[in-house]
Amino acid sequence: MKICVTAAGPDPDSAIDPKFGRCPYFVIVDPETMEYEAVQNSGMNASSGAGIRAAQTVSGKGADVVITGQLGPSAVQTLTAAGIKMMTGASGTVRDAAQQYRSGELSEAGMA
């Protein structure tokens, strides 16, 4: 399983960034082993379509779950079509979010 956490920096000790389409990094992490890959969000400064571009990036990296704060309707639609579960309510670092996911502390986001 791979989870993607929107993050302010490129590693598991980076703070969670609440914005999905405009976060600086996606940290893709295996919640069991904490092995991770950091991906810069190329659509962060896009004038439009940042959420869709972000969703396509995350999907292309094989993420099963996205943990973030805010998701726009286009991002929700794109992630739903890709079969990616969306979770909200995490706090702290990427590492904290992975633990919160594993212990069932996060809320699943649905269609906006």
Question: What features would you highlight for this structure?
Answer:
112 residues; alpha/beta; Nucleotidyltransferase, domain 5; six-stranded mixed sheet; 3 helices; 6 strands; 26% helix; globular
How would you sum up this structure, described in words?
This protein is α/β, with parallel strands linked by helices and 112 residues long. It has a single domain, classed as Dinitrogenase iron-molybdenum cofactor biosynthesis domain (Nucleotidyltransferase, domain 5). It is built from three helices and six strands, in the order E-E-E-H-E-H-E-H-E. The chain has helices spanning 50-60, 73-81, 94-102, and strands spanning 3-7, 25-29, 36-40, 65-67, 85-88, 107-108. A six-stranded mixed sheet has the order 3-2-1-4-5-6, sandwiched between helices. Helix 1 (50-60) runs parallel beside helix 2. The protein starts with a strand and ends with a strand. The model has no long low-confidence stretch (mean pLDDT 93).
CATH topology: Nucleotidyltransferase, domain 5
**Which bin fits the share of residues in helices?**
25-40%
CATH architecture: 2-Layer Sandwich
- Count of the domains: 1
CATH H level: which superfamily?
A: Dinitrogenase iron-molybdenum cofactor biosynthesis domain
Order of helices and strands: EEEHEHEHE
> What is Rg?
12 Å
Unreliable spans are: none
Total of helices: 3
Largest sheet: 6 strands, mixed
Read across the widest sheet, the strand sequence of neighbours is 3-2-1-4-5-6
Helix vs. strand class: alpha/beta
Strand content: 15-25%
The overall average pLDDT, rounded, is 93
| Alpha carbon gap, first and last residue | 25 Å
